[in-house]
Amino acid sequence: MKFDTVIIGGGLTGLISGIRLLQRGQKCAIISSGQSALHFFSGSFDLLNFLPDGSPVQNPEASIKDLAQQAPNHPYAKIGESKFVQLAKEAEKFLLEIGIPAHGSSSKNHYRITPMGVLKPTWLTMPNFAYNEDNEKLPWKKVSILNIEGFLDFHPEFISEALEKIHIETEIKYFNLPELDAVRKNPSEFRSTNLSIVFDKEENMDTLAKIFSENSKNSDAIIFPDCIGFKNTEILPTLIKKIGKPILLVPTFPPSLVGVRTQQYLKNYFTKLGGIYMLGDNVVHADVEGYHVSKIYTHNHGDIPFIAKNIILSSGSFFSQGLIADTKQVYEPVFNLDTDYLTDRADWYNSNLFDRQNYQQFGVKTNSNFNAIKDDQPIDNLFVAGATLSGFNPLKEGCGAGVSILSALHVAEQILTKEKTHEPITQ
């Protein structure tokens, strides 16, 4: 099987790079082992919230120079300051053009409301999710926090306590729909994705409007868990219009409804452009000849190789087994690429769960073009993007989604420039 580019990993990074390459005429395939980190998506894409030393970031564009000084191996530092700004703007335009509108700008972070009620800086936020431009003052005097009886993946008390601290009056209300009783019988099924099946039905619209109105009579806005609008994207705007006040979504514990929806949307967009998405398969080994990948082999296809001009490795970090750790080392399992990690295992982690964990920044070594490094030499047609990269801490720096998206676009650009042709390979 021959392709212009084969992408290993079907999450945010793989899909963004694949869509960009397909838009430029390439023939692409994605090999995806299964569920991606998008299923934990908060509804917001972070670009850069904190510098490595913990300093808060208000303007990501203006902070790249400081970031590069503190962490010269950070993916953003490798991209470079001017290129970072260009790619961030390109990413905002790209997402909008493919049908994923989001509020925000790379020149100024805004603040989203987390499931704990905390205002957290972020880059881009999806429509209808609760956010504000200011981290000290919200535009509501009183909000109603609504939840479904028995729904344990959303905690109104935490949100209420946090909002009360910044002088916003809150009230917590619970409600039920008889149709939910069948779902409630199995607690493991009483999740956001299943609740949305009930809430997205047109015949429940008037009942929901009445419930929301009666439980928010004296409030300026309603806060509600993200469990509506999965299949029927018009249900929430219509509901907001009916009750005449904002309904602000807050993410729930996984599975993330907005994450699953975004994953499916990007996958469908990729395949509609002609991409081949192979779900439930994984790359087991590759033929590398003279620092050039000639063939890759997958579990499902056995001895039938994939042949491509270029390969993108976006298999993720430890969560998706794009990186593996044993008692002595951290390694990349497919190509056995060079990795960055601390030699003393005691330095990998901190006993304080909420402190900075060094293992978060372990990953595959690359050059400035994000070519993978093996035996201290770059592989000319193997590129690395997303969480597999070394040099950044996505949790403490708040840059995970940004690294995924910007590195995906950057690697796609490197491939297109390298090939200097948009003609697809013929079978």
Automatic annotation (TrEMBL):
GO terms for cellular component: glycerol-3-phosphate dehydrogenase (FAD) complex. Keywords: Flavoprotein, FMN, Oxidoreductase. Its EC number is 1.1.5.3. Pfam families: FAD_binding_2. InterPro entries: FAD-dep_OxRdtase_2_FAD-bd, FAD/NAD-bd_sf, G3P_DH_GlpB_su. Residues 4-403 form the FAD-dependent oxidoreductase 2 FAD-binding domain. GO terms for molecular function: glycerol-3-phosphate dehydrogenase (quinone) activity. This is Anaerobic glycerol-3-phosphate dehydrogenase subunit B. It comes from Apibacter adventoris. The lineage of its organism: Bacteria, Pseudomonadati, Bacteroidota, Flavobacteriia, Flavobacteriales.
